Amino acid sequence: MGENLKMEETGSGNTRKRDTAWAESERSIQLQSKKRIVEEEEESRKKSSRTSSRIIELGNGSQVVYYPSFLDYNEAWKLFDYLNNHIPWTRPTIRVFGRSCVQPRDSCYVATEGVSELKYSGYQPQAYPWHQFPPLQHLLQAVEDGVPGSHFNSLLLNRYNGGNDYVSWHSDDESLYGPTPLIASLSFGCDRHFYLKKKPNKLASSVLKKNSSDESSSKQLKKTKNVDEQHSMLLKHGSLLVMRGYTQRDWNHSVPKRTKLDAVRINLTFRLVL
Ligand SMILES: O=C(O)CCC(=O)C(=O)O
Ligand SMILES: [Fe+2]
Questions:
Q1: How far, in Å, from the CA of 33 to the mean position of ligand 1?
Q2: Residue 134, pLDDT above cutoff 90
Q3: N or C: which end of the chain has fewer CB within 10 A?
């Protein structure tokens, strides 16, 4: 009798232990699944903000797409710190309209081995390999994943050390990018304005020169210089801007001076050298 009772007591002790262990494992499963749901929600929130975009039709096969929150805000600040401190920035001497001048911003160039060398404004930047900057390899992947049909093998980095730094009107129409390059531009740090302006219509300009006395052609040309011919947008920290189609052939772009600003902006443009 005494033995049995002991056995029962021991038995019910084990059962209690088993029950407690079961309840604990159940609680831990519930916690884990709650954590997973929160993580999944966060991931889907990030994904939908990454993919929300505004398309600007420039006409004649030129298009610009703006993703205001392509990167998570805090992750983008971590990347800003990395880029600011680990990229071997230089401020080269370039040639503009036949005159030598110091480029009004810092830059660096990264490219896949074997791609044709880039040359702009009489300057040929040294090409660093991707593997030297693992965060850039991750960004390349994120941009290729986020922009359907995109593929890149080179990256031009620019750092604007305050409002006096800028990039003047130009287009990235070097022949090594082909006639319709897709260029993806990521921005970090200080928000800066980005302007797009239609290139002058060569045919219309020559008609105007020939018939400078002809009022109607002069009026016609003025009419084409309306607001549809220019666009301004604020490129925010963590945003992505994609230029595609004939944007480089038909439009110029710039990031003008903003002398009252003294904060740093970093911009990365991913490109495909054909
Ligand atoms: O900084 C930017 O947003 C534009 C840079 C740019 O146009 C270029 O690197 O060609
Ligand atoms: Fe550009």
A1: 44
A2: yes
A3: N
Task: Decide if 176 contacts 274 (C-beta within 8 A).
Answer: yes
Tell the residue nearest (CA) to atom 3 of ligand 1. Answer: 267
Please tell me whether 265 is known to bind a ligand: yes
Predicted local confidence at residue 162, as pLDDT: 97
Q: Is 271 annotated as a binding residue?
A: yes
What span, in angstroms and rounded, lies between the C-alpha atoms of 105 and 108?
Answer: 10
pLDDT at residue 212 tops 60: no
pLDDT tens digits, one per residue of 24-61: 888 888 888 888 888 888 777 777 778 899 999 999 99
Task: Enter the pTM of the model.
Answer: 0.81
Ligand 1 binding residues, C-beta < 6 A: 156, 158, 167, 172, 185, 194, 235, 253, 255, 267, 269
**Residue 209 Cα, ligand 1 centroid: separation in angstroms?**
33
Tokens of 79: 């990347």
Instruction: Give, as one character, the DSSP assignment of residue 49.
Output: H
Atom 1 (ligand 1): residue with closest C-alpha?
Answer: 267
135, 82 contact by CB (below 8 A)? yes
Contacts of 235 (CB under 8 A, 6+ apart): 185, 187, 191, 192, 193, 194, 241, 255, 267
Give the Cα separation of 209 and 199 in Å (integer).
17
**Distance in angstroms (rounded) separating the CA atoms of residues 56 and 108:** 29
Asked whether the beta carbons of 54 and 241 are under 8 A apart, the reply is no
Hey, what are 58's tokens? Answer: 């420039």
Mean of per-residue pLDDT scores for the chain: 88
Would you tell me how many other CB atoms lie within 10 Å of the CB of residue 5?
9
What is the ipTM for the molecules in this complex?
0.99
The number of the ligand 1 atom at minimal distance from the alpha carbon of 192 is 3
